Amino acid sequence: MIRIEHLRKEYSNVTPLKDVTVTINDGDVISVIGPSGTGKSTFIRCLNLLEKPTSGEIWVDDICITDKKCNINKVRQKMGMVFQSFNLFNHMTVIKNIMAAPMNLLKKSKEEAYEEGMQLLRAVGLADKALNYPDELSGGQKQRVAIARTLAMHPDIILFDEPTSALDPTMVGEVQAVIRELAGRGLTMIIVTHEMRFAREIANRVFYMDEGGIYEEGTPEEIFERPVREKTIRFIKHIKVFEVDITSVDFDFIGLVSGLEEFGRRNQMSQKAINKLQTVFEELCVQIILPRFSDGFRINISVEYSQDDETAVMQIKYTGEAFDPQNSENLISLKLVKNAAESVVYSEIAEEDFTNLVTAKII
Amino acid sequence: MKNSKLKIFICSVIAALVSLVCIMGCAWAPTASAEESESSSAVAISAETEDTDVLSRFEYADLGVAEGSLFDKFSRERFPKATIKEFKNFADVLMALKLGKIDGTMLDRPNFNAVKRTESGLSCIPVPGYSVDIGFGFQKNDEGAALQAQMNAFLSQLKTEGKLDALIDKWYGETEPQATVPLSSLDGAKTLKVSIDLTRKPFVYMYYNEPVGFEIEVLYLFCKEYGYKVVYENGSFSTAGLAGLASKKYDMLCAGLYMTDERKESVNFSEPYMSADVVMVSYSGDGNFFASFAESFEKTFIREGRWKLILEGIATTLIISLSAIVGGTIVGFLLYLASRSKYKILSMIVRGFAKVYSKIIAGMPTLVILMLLFYVIFGRTDISGLAVAIIGFILTFGAFVYEQLKLTVNGVDKGQTEAAYALGYGRNQTFFRIVLPQAMKMFAPAYSSEIVSLIKATSVVGYIAVNDLTKMGDIIRSNTYEAFFPLMAVALIYFLLTWGISALLGFIIRKTDPRRKEKKKNAKKSDKEKQGDAK
Question: How buried is residue B175: exposed, middle or buried, by Cβ count under 10 Å (0-12/13-18/19+)?
Answer without folding.
Answer: exposed
